[in-house]
Specification:
Helix content is 70%, strand content 0%. The chain has helices spanning 9-21, 26-39, 42-63, 73-84.
Length: 87
């Protein structure tokens, strides 16, 4: 079956160049992508989505400024325990 698709020129050039370095035709690459898409299970998709979510979350955490308060969670627990323990 023939398929016509609009693909950005730059993307197509990159795909064509990479396929050429691998000795493959763009048609072969396209078939492989379609096959991989159809064969992907829902579980695999959920794992990939979860991994993408985690990576975005980690990237956001890397952008966060360091905390002003350098105390640890343990320090906070010890302080709270001191307030609750009878003297």
């Amino acid at each position: 079956m023939k398929v016509t698709a609009d693909i950005p020129d730059e993307l197509y050039r990159r795909v064509k160049a990479k396929a050429a370095t691998q000795g493959r035709a763009v048609r072969e690459v396209t078939e492989a992508l379609y096959s991989a898409y159809v064969e992907t299970t829902d579980a695999e998709s959920r794992i990939r989505d979860g991994e993408a979510w985690l990576e975005r979350w980690l990237e956001l955490s890397r952008r966060m400024p360091p905390p002003v308060d350098s105390s640890t969670a343990r320090d906070h627990l010890d302080q709270a325990r001191g307030r609750l323990d009878p003297a």
